[in-house]
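User: Hi! I'm working on a homework problem where we have to compare a predicted structure to a textbook description. Could you give me the structure for the chain below?
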Amino acid sequence: MDKRKQLLPLTGILILLILLIILITGMVQAIKHGNGFLFIPSFTASPTASFTHTITPTTTLTPINTIDLMRLHTSIAQTIDSNHSKTEAAKTKTLTPTSTLTPVNTVDMSMMETKILFAFFEAQTETAEAIVYTATPSMILNEKGYFEKRKGNDQSIMVRIQEAGKTFWIDKYEVTCQQYSLCVNMGKCDRVTQASEDDDQNLPVVNVNWNQAATYCLWAGKHLITDSEWLTGAGILFNTEYPWGNDSPDQNRVNANLFLEKRVKPGQYPSGMSPYGLMDMLGNVWEWTESSDNLEEQKIRGGSWRTPNNLLGLELSGKMKKTESSIDVGFRCASSQ
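Assistant: Happy to help. Predicted structure tokens:
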């Protein structure tokens, strides 16, 4: 009986050891198979520090197809510049991108240039309509192959003549009423009385004396044509009787012999132009010239609409006092520059 009492504690301890071994074995197997093991504590612990398994990156996210906008912009700009240079060199209007990048706002250089040119010429046309005399900076070849351009304050068309080692310019047409009125409106020229039919301001100005003609040419930045310049411009060096050649004057070449009984707009007889392309060197209105002797009387050249055909010719001239004027006497200017 006493021995049994002694064995009871040992038996209890042995049972506890067996249970402990079973427990430990179960825990090991659970850990090996990835299963959790639930502990239910008898009290709630308040940890002083907690750990989380959530990783939050800062700004190091790197997408697979990241687009570098700055590099894209630079590449597009370089592509456009490169192709524009190639376009200029090849004298074409085609833009051929060398990059596989296709920007949304592709620049069409051909369309851009076309729009710019269209706007420019549209503005030029509006300017030409608004201004009576439009400056032409570059020279062009006229019907006879001589250079002409607009010159002076009146922007008249002048023809360049190079003869005997001298270069000078002569007005292609006689000075008109409209051109003369510009000088009058500027307060530089005297107002002159025109004939009653002078409603058309494009007719040659008449009733101007020599002094008034010279004043106008000075205002225009030119000089009254000299007698020598007039003869050269009319074609005296070509050894012909008339500016157009040796054929007799008729109503297709010159306004004379009372065909129309009045003056007409300059340039109505292109078949009668001089070898340099000057118009109405004979007929229409007489033209004042300046002589080197500067006498009180000065020569007039070319005849007018009232001159008989049999008197017309390059050598035809008359004389008038500087203070005199007539309904069939006008003028044109010249320039040495």
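For your comparison, note the following. The mean pLDDT is 76. The longest strand covers residues 156-163. Good luck with the assignment!
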